[in-house]
Amino acid sequence: MGFEKTNFPVSRATEAISLAKFIEERPQCFTEKTKRVLSLIIGCTVLHLHQTSWLQPGWGSVDIAFFQTTSNEVPLRPFIQTELHEDTLETHNDDVLDDDEMYMSHLCPFLIDLAIVLMEIHFVKSFRTLAEMRQIELLEKRNGRVAFVDTDQVFNGDRDEDDDSDCEQNGLKSEIPGDFRNLILAIENCLDAELWEDEHQNPLGPETLRSRIYEKVVRPLELHLVHGFSDIPLDGVDKFARNIDFSQWGKAMYSEKQVHSGHGGAEKYSKTPAPSTALSVQAFAKRVASTDFRSRISSTFSYTPGRQVVTSSSLSVGDAQGHFFDDEKGQISNNYDDWKRRYLSVYEKFIEKYIPSYLESPIRIAILDTGIDEDHVLLEAHRDIKGKHNFYDTSRKRRVTDTTGHGTFAANLILDYAPDADLYVIKVADDNTLPDAEVVQRAIGHAVDVWRVDIISMSFGWPTSNFPGHDGLRKSIDMAYSKQVLMFAAASNNGGNSGRAYPASSPHSASRSKYDELLNRGRVGSLGMAWY
Description:
alpha/beta; Pfs domain-containing protein; serine-type endopeptidase activity; protease
């Protein structure tokens, strides 16, 4: 977020990739982490470059470029592309005057451009596509800039003047989850024309404007990042981002030497430097895990199926983008055994003693996974499964054979820690592959409408919400939520390298993560975030 030259080995064999091209052609590269980090970096760029020749009128995602390195990585390091001419400061021709007329109700049009980019990043769609989704026809302009009235209408919606019922057409703001309130606030403030003028409707002074941009736009974007990824150092977010490979959905670009170098941990910061401080940012803690740290990670999942479980490290790039989570092999530790004994002791003393031997309406839990092996030794002590259905292979509706062991272990985990609940099993996938969204949609409908379950567990997810069948799946999740069904979904399988997967990122589901025996959230193999 400072002014500096490119100092990483750029590949001369490939052209720079614009943010607009990433959105149009490579939407799978956007994760919740990369979206939040990128939004903050671009917001800070506007803070530093506004009213300079580097930030040209009408700038947008086509002007933000990313370069590929000689090792075929694309650091999450955006660059502003602009053409500087000797007459840059004398560009108030007829076209610009035409733009001024379209922007006359907003004295800081560069913030309108920022609002557009923030919307494009969040929804991973071009602004023109977003406008078409709202059935809004954009005003055609000679230089391609988007009018303020169009931007405001797409985001905030508008009132139907011909409708006496005062019914409003909702804008994109209504599509952003409520727990993203700081992102909503940043975009709202960008589009609030009154914030960017004084009491006489004149432009703000340079220092006042700079401070207000920080307070009303950058700070909310900081909070948006912190609420999602509290371990990312704000004072060094730009340097931190350079170690993220944008082309590989946010994976860290650490060499083998770095991974085993013994460095670890990241210092936390509460806010970026105030606008009055130097532009360059200085603090950066190396975020690499030592061999010792990795050896201390213990998984609570002790089940080792006969067939070897595929781990994320052995998957191809395509496979690893979305699959069943929590499938990393772990070894039983004495600490975990002790913790489990303490848990069962508390359960027996405070819960089991007060539960009648026969419950009229026990809690019903549906698990959507790879099926179940009822003959497995782990399940011998448990009573019969209450319901089974195979949506993965409809020719075998009542057979939910588990060939990987993942679903079997997940079912055992539930029965171990909720022994008085009734378990229902739905097979939605096999071989640890990502299930079809339509299959999951039907499975949720069956669990809610036929079995009338209270809880649904899903150990899978997509890295972003941009996948075939998302809209139908979202509707089924909303339907289950409206019927007071609790839904738990796996957060991710890549620790802090990825944001919450979908449906864990849905405001109507809870994100489930890996914890150690001391109830500390696991830092490798999953990312946990409470919904708020």
